[in-house]
Amino acid sequence: MTNRRRWECGPIAVSATLGVHRRGARDPAYRSAPDGSIWRAVHTPDGPGTIAVAAAAGAVVARAWGPGGPWLLDAAPAMVGEGDRPEDLVADDPVVRGLVDRAPGLRIGRTDRVWEALVAAILEQKVVGSEAYRAWRYLLRRYGEPAPGPVPADMRVPPPRSVWREITESDWHRSGLEPVRMRAVRAAAAVDVEVKSDVLTALRGVGPWTAAHARFRALGDPDAVPIGDYHTPSVVGTALIGERVDDAGMLELLEPYRGQRYRVIRLCEVVGGMPARRGPRMSTRDYRGF
Predict the structure, then answer these.
(1) pLDDT tens track for 228-237
(2) Are 227 and 241 in contact (CB under 8 A)?
(3) What is the DSSP code string of the chain?
(4) Model confidence pLDDT, tens digit, residues 105-124
(5) Which SUPFAM superfamilies does UniProt cross-reference here (predicted)?
(6) CA 212 → CA 30, 77, 178, distances in Å?
(7) Residue 5: what are its φ and ψ, rounded to 5°?
(8) CB within 8 A of 204, min separation 6: which ones?
(9) What's the per-residue H, E or C state across 115-146?
């Protein structure tokens, strides 16, 4: 069985599109290769798999390995946004139009792996990224399988939902996260979120912010707005009007683009970048010594 798939398509910025799945610079499940390809380790319905995706002269080429490889090849076009409709964003405002023009090929893809997106989002609740990424690395290295294929030895496939339920309290402690997120993960793991993705906020410990992060990654939702994010309002405000705003200000700025609000957020992130830091930063906490 072939482990390769190629399809003709319009311009797709593979790195920018798939970059939302990267959990820090040393994510065991994600690699950026020197040739520009993006490698992801994923636990699919058919088991662990690794996929490598690259743009190639008006086409996209995907290669995959492991029991989940065929599933990943079937899912590859959606993952890089082949079914996305960026033209649905009506950008009459010249600033937004400029963001669109400066991000050719940026798509909103969907992985159809709700649990993978949800559990990572739970780890990132109300903490700085470095704290969540540290825990993600530890837990994948402790409980994830080695990624199949010609990959670095430290690449790991995120464990399936059943394994997350069995992570010991001592290993949660060693990961550096506090018990509240352990309890949220365990509660969510008791539900098949792949078939109940429309009721994520009904889960214990899952609010609008967490649900939005799961929805735009797993379901390609172009309108998922992560209310309560530490950085996003400042990124959006700075990109659109040149000044920081709070959640209310961000929602006001995004209202003309309802239905495509996350697309505007992603454009602001990719093109506008992070605003200059001012004032105190969130501190990184470490519960391992408690």
Answers:
(1) 998 999 999 9
(2) no
(3) ---EEEEE-S---HHHHHGGG--STT-TTEEE-TTS-EEEEEEETTEEEEEEEEE-SSEEEEEEESTTHHHHHHHHHHHTTTT--GGG----SHHHHHHHHTSTT------S-HHHHHHHHHHTTTS-HHHHHHHHHHHHHHHSEEPPSS--TT-EEPPPHHHHTT--HHHHHHHT--HHHHHHHHHHHTS-TTT-GGGGGGSTT--HHHHHHHIIIII--TT---TT-SSHHHHHHHHHHSS---HHHHHHHHGGGTTSHHHHHHHIIIII-PPPP-SPPPPPP-GGG-
(4) 999 999 999 999 999 999 99
(5) DNA-glycosylase
(6) 21, 22, 22
(7) -145, 135
(8) 183, 184, 187, 188
(9) HHHHHHHHHCCCCCHHHHHHHHHHHHHHHCEE
In one letter, which amino acid is 79?
A: M
Contacts of residue 88, defined as CB under 8 A and 6 or more positions apart, other chains included, come to 222, 259, 260
Contact residues for 18 (Cβ-Cβ < 8 A; gap 6+) = 38, 40, 53, 79, 80, 109
Residue of 103, 27, 85, 18 lying closest to 52 (CA atoms): 18
If phi > 0 it is left, if psi is from -120 to 50 it is alpha, else beta; for residue 58 that is left
In the block, which residue shows the tokens 């464990």?
Answer: 159
Contact between 261 and 249 under an 8 Å Cβ cutoff? The reply is: no
Longest Cα–Cα distance in the chain: 56
- Report the 10 Å Cβ neighbour count for 102: 12
Q: Are 12 and 107 contacting, i.e. CB atoms less than 8 angstroms apart?
A: yes
Q: What is the pLDDT of residues 253-284, one digit of tens each?
A: 999 999 999 999 999 999 986 665 554 444 44
Residue 226 structure tokens: 């992560």
Look-up: residue for tokens 């109300």?
126
